[in-house]
Amino acid sequence: MTKLILVLLPVMLLQHRISANATETSAQPPNTQSRPSQQPSITVQELAKRQAPALVGTGEEAKKNALAFIDWAGASTKSQDEIVRKMVAGARENPDIIMAFCDEAFAKQDVDHSRALVALSLIGEARSQAGMECMVKFARQPLPEKGTVVEGEIIERTNLAMLQAKAIDGLAYLRNEKADQFVVEAAAKNPSRIVRAEAIAAYLWNHNYDAKSREILKSVIRKDEVIFLDRLVKQADEPKESFNRKLAVYLKTHPEIMPPGPEKAEPQPKETVGRPPKF
Amino acid sequence: MKIFRILLAGLMLTFVFQSSVAQAVCNQSSASTADNDLWNTHGCWQAFFLWSYKAYDQRQSDWNNRGWNDACNANMEFPKHWNAAYLVTYGLQDANCCSWHGTTDYRKLGEAAGSNFHSGLYHDAGDGTSLFGGFTPHTFGADELTTYCPLYNATSANGNPGSRAGDFMHEGWHGWLHKYNWNNGSCGGHRCGTPGACTAKDACDYFYFHGVGAFAFGALYQTDGTANRFHSPNQVQVEFLCDVADYPKSWVPNSVRQAARSDADARAAARFINGPGYKCGNPRPW
């Protein structure tokens, strides 16, 4: 029996090798059973014509409409941003709609990160009392201490921090005393640098970068994060000339952030076959 | 008999190991909202994936159990990969006034062909969960660019087309560093530990600040060898993500833009020794 196995082993290994090679040499292009689709340029035009679902109703109807609206808003284009903003503002006084957004943000935070992000954006844009309570609750969730470590970070922790940063954007956008207090507290004490950075940026932006808001933040934030007060925000549609001027000032004000010059790597010896060993 | 038992045990272990490798794939039961929204803009454009698998040098043996023959199943890795490639190829506005870099830069960085940006490379996918991506230079044959499960799983903040494409840029830039023999650190091509303001571990870079328009479209690969004109992998990734968020084509869905911005801002705050890097957009919720 032993002999049989020993005889068969090379055959089996050879067969495995041949089959692997056969796969490589007979590789087929990727395939699908789906029907060929039309040109994306046509699809995009059709999508642009889709009407936004109405953001109305109470109870179950409100929930159904809110979920349909999240579907539509996530897929909406830049030119539809103002439509989204107006419709959400119109639903500000409808707690059932806002709560449906809120429930969806919580339900999807561990399942579909980008959907939770969209839902939180809508809550923030609504500027409502119900929304404020939801965002505070969301931002108060403890960040996980254990989980899957990706490149030194616990990915579940980073995921939640990114969503909390979005909730903080919404709280700062409320521009009321209570929400501001929460944002300042987050800027100082949230355990994630991602959230603290966003809180500082959102507070300043919503207060037009005035001196008073800088002072308020400066008195509470970590000393090693004071630089966030001057951090450059690359505003959409800002012409390069004005941005580049601000960059020059930033670098002059903070020479410590200039990196050292890049270094060349040690030359890597090329792998060669070389001469045969001495006989 | 002893030899027989050892051989039998070895063969069994081999088969068990092989079958476990075949089953260990990323989550193939769902796709993120951002992936689905982008997908719906092309509805599985077959002409594109028949082009992109060559442009990204994807090989059947690497993608067989990841949707190679089910290329319109948006839950599988291969379709998610080409969904991201679609965003890179068509999704950017290339605004002369404001974009960091142009489509021509990002395409050359991500695509397989050797160029000023890197030597020839091929794309595969890995089952790991402790990395987003990896660049492995090979002495013989093309270099290898691997993307891992956190870029494909909807639960992850990075499981969306912008972040996935952002990783093509990041890993492609390791290819640039390799091609021109630059040392960006000895921990997987990054600085070791958690130096300076960086909160990641063994994944930190310097940010080499530059103005808008400092690099003409197509000139991202250029450097003068000083900190005034240089990029790091995380930086290229942040600049790409900001371009997706702020200067996309008009049809790019909001969920894609939001996810890209969120990724860019988080990375800008957490990945740089001399951070923070730039923050894109503005903090308005919508």
UniProtKB/TrEMBL annotation, chain B:
<keyword id="KW-0732">Signal</keyword>
<feature type="signal peptide">
    <location>
        <begin position="1"/>
        <end position="24"/>
    </location>
</feature>
<protein>
    <submittedName>
        <fullName>Uncharacterized protein</fullName>
    </submittedName>
</protein>
